């Protein structure tokens, strides 16, 4: 099969839209349509449902998994050969939902290994399982559970998550509150898919409540500043609470044992890690996470 056609198929499968895929690939839409049609003819079955909007069908989803693994292995092979030819230690690709709380760790890694290229990719945990199996990244640092089939995973750290309130808020002097006491409070949080939003939704759902969200976005680092400005409340983990740039807010415990964050490191079980990736894994697993939160 033509590798170029397979790469184009993955873009169409991701976007499920021919014209947008053609724009991203910078090819003419009729040419892209013919490429997909030839691929389907070679496979002997349609890969997309075309009734109304273009949708990847079951055969397409199955084929996409194999294509991602195939192209991922080819890229891994290219990187391994480049590493051997250079007699170097390669590049490490690390994905995380946020890098705000591991900047010190990354600085220590670069200080110890200045010649290693570090590629950071921010992504929601929902995308990590696929990205690892497609060899798009070497390691993933997740703050919420992801499917672990075909992965090697190691628990790194568990920490409490705090309620941050504006200074002067009616709850600011409290040491702890219940979720029910927050039923009418406005919340500043991240979009669905981020761990903060998932935890907030879980806490409220567990009490048959729905959080009142007045602001949602992708900048988790900005939530404390918005809280300090009086826009609403938010959830912030212990490590971020001690970040050097943290805005002035009141810190309040939430009386619920589920109000915690767990950090887990994942890699594909059958992946051959570069020396750079093995060194990053060693740094992550030996890092003093408790000290980092102080």
Give the tally of β-strands.
12
| Oligomeric nature of the chains | single chain
Instruction: Name the beta content range.
Output: 15-25%
- Gyration radius (Cα, Å) is 22 Å
Give the tally of structural domains: 3
Distance between the termini: 54 Å
Quickly give the CATH architecture of the largest domain.
Answer: 3-Layer(aba) Sandwich
CATH class of the largest domain, named Alpha Beta
Order of helices and strands: HHHEEHEHEHEEEEHEHEHEEHH
Mean pLDDT over the residues: 88
Q: Spans of 5+ residues with little confidence (pLDDT < 50)?
A: none
| Largest sheet report | 8 strands, mixed
Query: What fraction, in percent, of the residue positions are helical?
Result: 40-55%
Shape: globular
CATH homology group of the largest domain: Periplasmic binding protein-like II
What is the CATH topology classification name of the largest domain?
D-Maltodextrin-Binding Protein, domain 2
Counting H and I runs of at least 4 residues, what is the number of helices? Answer: 11
Give the structural class: alpha/beta
Offer a few descriptive terms.
294 residues, alpha/beta, D-Maltodextrin-Binding Protein, domain 2, 3 domains, two-stranded antiparallel sheet, 11 helices, 22% strand
């Amino acid at each position: 099969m033509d590798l170029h056609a397979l790469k184009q198929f993955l873009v169409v499968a991701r976007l499920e839209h021919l014209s947008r895929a053609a724009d991203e690939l910078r090819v003419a839409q009729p040419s892209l349509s013919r490429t997909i049609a030839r691929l389907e003819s070679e496979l002997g079955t349609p890969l997309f449902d075309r009734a109304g909007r273009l949708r990847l069908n079951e055969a397409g989803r199955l084929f996409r998994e194999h294509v991602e693994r195939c192209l991922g292995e080819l890229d891994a092979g290219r990187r391994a050969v480049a590493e051997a030819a250079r007699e170097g230690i390669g590049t490490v690709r690390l994905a995380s939902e946020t890098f705000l709380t591991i900047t010190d760790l990354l600085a220590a890694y670069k200080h110890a290994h200045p010649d290693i290229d570090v590629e950071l990719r921010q992504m929601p945990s929902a995308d990590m399982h696929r990205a690892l199996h497609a060899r798009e990244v070497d390691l993933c640092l997740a703050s919420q559970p992801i499917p672990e089939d075909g992965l090697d995973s190691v628990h790194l750290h568990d920490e409490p998550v705090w309620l941050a309130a504006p200074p002067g808020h009616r709850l600011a002097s409290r040491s702890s509150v219940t979720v029910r006491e927050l039923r009418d409070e406005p919340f500043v949080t991240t979009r669905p898919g981020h761990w903060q939003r998932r935890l907030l939704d879980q806490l409220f759902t567990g009490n048959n409540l729905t959080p009142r969200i007045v602001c949602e976005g992708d900048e988790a680092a900005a939530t404390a500043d918005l809280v300090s400005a009086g826009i609403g409340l938010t959830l912030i983990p212990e490590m971020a609470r001690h970040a050097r740039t943290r805005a002035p807010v009141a810190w309040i415990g939430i009386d619920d044992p589920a109000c915690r964050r767990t950090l887990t490191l994942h890699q594909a079980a059958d992946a051959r890690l570069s020396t750079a990736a093995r060194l990053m894994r060693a740094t992550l697993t030996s890092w003093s996470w408790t000290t980092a939160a102080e």
